[in-house]
Amino acid sequence: MTYNGQAAGLPWDESSPLFGTTYLGGANNMGAVYEITPNGSGWNFQIIHSFSSGFHGGQLMMDPSGNLLGTTSLGGSHSGGTLFRLAAGTFNEATLHNFCAEANCTDGSLPFGALVMDANGNLFGTTQEGGAGAQCVTDGGCGVAYERTADGKFKVIHDFCSLNNCKDGRAPAAGMVLDANGNLFGTTYLGGTSEGGTVFELSHGAPWTETVLYNFCSTQNCPDGASPVAPPILDASGNLFGTTANAGANVTGGTAYRLKLQ
């Protein structure tokens, strides 16, 4: 869930509303956005939006103006999912992008994971499929990282599986985090040198430059884990923390990891 101040790194104040999404349900059984507010020993709950075009809502973020921003993994005018905004106060929906609007879904499809906004109001996220990765081994595409600028322009900033054998990773299913210098960090579920997924950095610039920081399953029997499904957490020293869904010392249990950046 999200709340006012979360994007700036502030803790929840234990009294303001929390906002989240459901995968299904709502007036159209396509998912909904809800608000819960503490009320003494309980909570007040209300549905503030039912999806009707895009469906299967993902993680939300609240911008400094109180607007809610998020994605739906499917639906929209091209069936590739949507990027949407719910206006502060009214919660009226505006679609900011319909994925798969470009031929062969080169703008991405199946958006997943957390969104992040920089100080200039530019919005960044990932899609699990689509894109123009030249080495992609999947019919639906291997995913993209994208930017929607504050003035409304949408562009792909990295196509995954651009390198031979997808060494730059594929299926970035978790979203990204942003450091103080405007660089983005994220994970891919698959790809990399050992097909166990990656931790990557997109260095701010024109063009953006991708660097793989770690390849999971890079040691024998994969005690370092495989298939990360959540974005990393960035601490004040620039270290990254996260989890993997598979492998590890117990074969299938997954791992928690720390990546120390040099």
Sheet with the most strands, sense and barrel status: 5 strands, antiparallel
Question: How many discrete structural domains?
Answer: 2
Structural class: mainly beta
The tally of helices reads 0
Query: Tell me, what's the shape?
Result: globular
Low-pLDDT stretches are none
Using the CA coordinates, give the radius of gyration: 18 Å
* H/E topology pattern: EEEEEEEEEEEEEEEEEEE
Strand content: 35-45%
Give the distance, in angstroms, between the N- and C-terminal Cα atoms: 32 Å
Q: Can you give the helix content as a percent range?
A: under 10%
Number of strands: 19
Mean pLDDT figure: 95
Task: Give structural notes.
This protein is mainly β and 262 residues long. The protein folds into 2 domains: 1-98, no CATH class; 100-262, no CATH class. Helix content is 0%, strand content 41%. It has no helices and 19 strands. The protein has strands spanning 18-22, 32-39, 42-50, 54-57, 61-62, 68-75, 82-86, 93-98, 109-117, 123-129, 144-148, 154-159, 176-178, 184-188, 198-203, 209-215, 233-234, 240-244, 255-259. The strands form 5 sheets. Strands 4, 5, 6, 7 and 8 form a 5-stranded antiparallel beta sheet that branches. A 4-stranded antiparallel beta sheet has the order 9-10-11-12, with no helix packed on it. The two termini are 32 Å apart. 42% of the residues are buried. The model has no long low-confidence stretch (mean pLDDT 95).
